[in-house]
Amino acid sequence: MKAIVGARLIDGTGVPPIPNTTVIVGGDSILGVHPAGSVEVPYEAEVVDATGLTLMPGLIDTHDHLAHFGHDLAVRWGIDEPQSLRHARVFDVLKQTLETGFTTVRDAAGLDAGFRDAVDRGLMPGPRLKVALNFITPTAGQADRTSPSGHSPAVIPQPDLPLGIADGPFAMRAKVREMVRAGADVIKTAVNGWGRPTRGLGPRDQIMTREELDALVDEAHVMSRKVMCHVLGGSGLRMAVEAGVDSIEHGSYLNQDPELLEMMARKGIYFAPTFSVFYYHERRGSPHESARALHFREHHAESLRLALEAGVQVVAGCDAGAFVHGNNAHELTCLVERGMKPMDAIRAATGRAAQCLGLENSIGTVKAGLKADLILVEGDPLEDVSILEYGRAVNWVMKDGEVYVDRRLSRLP
Length: 413
Ligand SMILES: [Zn+2]
Prior knowledge:
Layout: E1 2-9, E2 18-26, E3 29-35, E4 46-49, E5 53-57, E6 59-64, H1 73-77, H2 83-99, E7 102-107, H3 113-120, E8 128-131, E9 135-136, H4 169-181, E10 186-190, H5 210-222, E11 226-231, H6 234-243, E12 247-250, H7 259-267, E13 270-272, H8 275-284, H9 287-310, H10 330-337, H11 342-348, H12 351-357, E14 374-378, E15 394-399, E16 402-406
Parallel strand pairs: 1-4, 1-5, 6-7, 7-8, 9-10, 10-11, 11-12, 12-13
Antiparallel strand pairs: 1-2, 2-3, 5-14, 14-15, 15-16
The structure holds zinc ion.
């Protein structure tokens, strides 16, 4: 048993911070949350002195790619290095991500279910993982990695990641089942072309029919899986909202069809704008990618503003794995820079993110009965949310009641 004593608590629900709290942890769960002096610390509890620190729920990223290390075809196909080396690098990323205060990450394609299970079994330290495995799209969509000359990663099989191509509604249903068979916690799809216009398919060009999407969404929901949908704008955006996907990923051009934001608010569809990845496309992409990302920028910021006005549930997902690992908190900085209140941005990466994942009864807030996923932060993230970036201000991390990071001593002179 542990008692975290003296911290100012931001509990992930959006209520104002509570000063000088005592939080009791037993096993992997939170047993109680008490204002100062209202509880006697049990004699058997190990006291964690958190005086002067901010206690928060472990952070949640709703959209990342922890197994991605670049955009080149060879890297994406995983043929530039042995699989064993790639896996070792992924485990390093998992450890690094946990140490920055992210105790849960939803991987939006690329990570196979074995990583999730290895972390769950305590073989390697890492955030709690929810995995999509791969996109499901028709031919020529994101799941189709065939090169223009017809070379396909299918000749170099990754047995733990099903290929994601399906054409027609029945094939969509079968593909959802195949993903679930391979361990998918969530179904990832894309109804439009890339942000980068490969194969002449731009970000507003629809690549899937309504019939196909309806089948995918229905099958996923039958199997109790949520659907996260990559879509930037155009007719595909309306189709995704009308078909009832569970979250819109990116949504850069939502501002061009504001009626959709009303529908999203009404239907409880989450919005993960993933500003962080666009930030990197702007700065590190090819000149063409960079120009395109700049074009998104105004629309995207306006989309967030209108979404907040409409009451859409906005969540934090960085999507930046192919550019950088270990800075998932950059998305919070991006959200605040574009007008979100810091407390709201924190909710977007804690309580609300847990709801987006359907895990609000086990993680995301600091409440008795929930898993003990907690972090201690030096300084006030409500004043400057960027102190969370790279875990700079995070000096203690607990997941499932177990302490993975304790840098509190380094505060001493
Ligand atoms: Zn992504």
